[in-house]
Amino acid sequence: MSSENRTLCDRKLSYSEMAQASRTGDPYHLTNCDLHGTDLAELDFTGWSFETCNLTGASFKGATLEEATLKGCRAGNIVLQGADLTDALISGGDYSNANLRGTKLTHCTIRNCKMTGADLSEAQAIGVTLEKVLFHLAVLPRFSFRKMTLKRVDFSDANMNRCDFRDAVLEDCSLRNTHLVDSRFENADLRGADLGGIMLTDMRRFKGATISKQQAATLLGQLGLQVF
After folding, report:
1. E strand intervals along the chain
2. Are residues 21 and 83 both part of a single domain?
3. Are residues 16 and 105 in the same domain?
4. DSSP-derived pairing of the beta strands 129-134 and 109-114
5. d(CA 73, CA 114)
6. In 3-state terms, what secondary structure has residue 5?
7. What pLDDT tens digit does each residue of the chain (228 aa) get?
8. C-alpha pair distances (Å), 131 with each of 10, 89, 114, 226
9. CATH number for the domain that contains residue 194
C-alpha cells in the first residue's frame, strides 16, 4: 500500500475502519482525525502517527503503540491502561486525567504535555525521557526516576509516594506540595527544584540529596533563622 493511502486527514473514524487498518500491519499517519470515545482496545498501532487528533475518552487499553507518535492531540480521559508505548513519542497535547495504569513506557519520550490528574500507577518506566510536562495532581506512586534528568517537569500536589529519585537530576522542576512518603533521594540533585511547601521536619525524606544554599536558607527560615 502506498504511503498516500496510509494517510488519513480530517475524518471521523469508526472502530471498524481502525481495526481494518490495524490488521494490515502497515503504520498509518492520522492528522486532525476524530476518535472521540472510540474503543480501540488490544489493537496494534505499531509505528502509527496521531497528529492533532481528538482522542478524548478513547480507549487504547492493552493496545500496542510501539514506536508510535502522538503529537498535539486532545486526549483528556484517554485510556492507555496496559498499553505498550515502548519507544513511543508523546509530544504536545492535553492528556488530563489519562489512565496509564500499568502502561509500558520503556524508552518513551514525553514532552510539552499536560497530564494533570493522570494516573501512572504501576507504569513501567525504564529509560523514560520527561521534559516540560505538567503532572499537577497526577498519581505516580512507586515511579522510578532513578538516574534520570528531568527538565521543566511540574509535580506540584502529585501523589509520588515511594518514588525512586536516586541519582536523578531535576532542572527547573517543581516538587511543591508533592506527597513523597517513603520516596528515596540518595545522590539526587535538587538544586533546580522548587521545594515550596516542604517543612523542615519533612526534609528527612531527602536524605542524601543535594540542595542549594538558597533552598537551605528558605527551609531554615521556617525556624526564624537567617543564613548569610
Report:
1. 7-9, 29-31, 49-51, 69-74, 89-94, 109-114, 129-134, 149-154, 169-171, 173-174, 193-194
2. yes
3. yes
4. parallel
5. 11
6. helix
7. 444 569 999 999 999 999 999 999 999 999 999 999 999 999 999 999 999 999 999 999 999 999 999 999 999 999 999 999 999 999 999 999 999 999 999 999 999 999 999 999 999 989 999 999 999 999 999 999 999 999 999 999 999 999 999 999 999 999 999 998 889 999 999 999 998 877 655 667 778 899 888 877 777 666 665 656
8. 29, 12, 11, 35
9. 2.160.20.80
Task: Give the cell for residue 131.
Answer: 521534559
| Domain residue limits at 211 | 152-228
Distant-in-sequence, close-in-space partners of 55: CB < 8 Å, separation ≥ 6: 35, 36, 70, 73, 74, 75, 78
Please identify, among 134, 168, 200, the residue that sits at the C-terminal boundary of a domain: 134
Q: How many domains does the chain have?
A: 2
For residues 63 and 114, membership in a common domain is answered with yes
* Nearest-angstrom CA–CA distance, 115 and 223: 35
Query: Do 158 and 116 belong together in one domain?
Result: no
> Which residue in the block uniquely carries the three cell numbers 500499568?
102
Q: Which three cell numbers stand for residue 95?
A: 492528556
Are residues 111 and 3 part of one domain? yes
Q: Are 121 and 205 within one domain? A: no
3-state helix, strand, coil in the chain (%, to 5): 10, 30, 60
Q: Are residues 91 and 60 in the same domain?
A: yes
Can you give the length of the chain in residues? 228
